[in-house]
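ok so I'm stuck.
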Amino acid sequence: MHRAYKFRLYPTSVQQIALAKSFGCCRWYWNYSLNLCGETYKLSGKSLSRGAIQGLLPNLKKEYEWLSEAYSQCLQYVALNLSTAYKNFFEKRAGFPQFKSKHGRQSISYPSNVKLDDDYIKLPGKVGKIYCKQERKFDGQIKTVTISQNPDGKYFASVLVDDGKETPLASSSGKVIGIDLGLTHFCITSDGSKFNNPRHTQKHALNLKKKQQSLARKQKGSNTRNKAKKLVAKIHSKVRKVREDFLHKLSRKIVNENQVIAVENLNVSLGKVYGRHSLPRTFRKGMVRNHNLAEAISDCGWGQFCTMLKYKSEWDGKTYIEVDRFFASSRTCNVCLSKEVDSLALDIRCWICKKCKTHHDRDINAAINIRNEALRILSLGTSDTANGGNVSQPGKTSVLLDAVPREVGNPIPL
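replied:
not stuck anymore, here's the structure
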């Protein structure tokens, strides 16, 4: 099994300069290759393969000597990442690859020749040994190490390790729980438990407002503006950390106590975030198009929570199931299975079934229905729900579902 361990790095001023040069070289090579792929497709209708992109490096290093500042395998890994990004796009797992900016998070990956020596991590090339704060020890073979710098100026190393263990087979024998996600209560389970929404952004809103106002008054391009920018980034980093801490603890608690975990496949957002600004509302998709609830939905981190439930369930040999988002979980009576209620506004938290006269808590009823639907899926041995068809377009199959990127053997002349 592959596991990732993240450690804080404390590079010296000389090492920070070396890392900044590596970040810049890899970022430039990514943007250059992405632009070349686009131009090639416009001219020939074909895209560049990973080998063709890597084949550009020798000539580029002769033309741009500063590319040698970065470790050679880091640049080669950029071609692999770009190829993977295109593959994820064609397989509808991600959006189209975007150009990288020097503002925001920076990262480079070392596929080999990285060693952990006590409290230091030894990187190949001109960086050398960096002091690394290791809170946890691990056993296994290091596969890849990704060095990143957050907008608040902190450095981290994400170490991907192969521990040599096999992934346990998923078992469905045990306690089954259904989870309904909400805003007032972050998580409602089928056994009646409700976990309040911490509203992390709201707790730091006043401090963030003051720091952003101070940033707006600074002159562009000045050192004081750069310092104020870092203070704003630190608040965003704080919010992200407390959110991740809450999601990790809650997801671990749910996985430890249950064998089968069922959640709703919510279409939260497909909007790409660029720096501190997201796409305009007219270009957003999913639930965040509701401008009244967009901030609250984004602050919850539903997608990240479901991702944590999924991989932690796989680690422990448990079953994770997603129920179709079009399944009428809220307005279906879990007792008599009737859908007497045509629609439920968000302000209606309780309702009475017209057929069996059962009084329902909206969220608990939805969680129970999600659990029952998961049990039905397990019993039938299929992932199809009552609605059937494709989630985005019920009853239709996209013609691009099996599309793959076309490759060309030789790149176009530079």
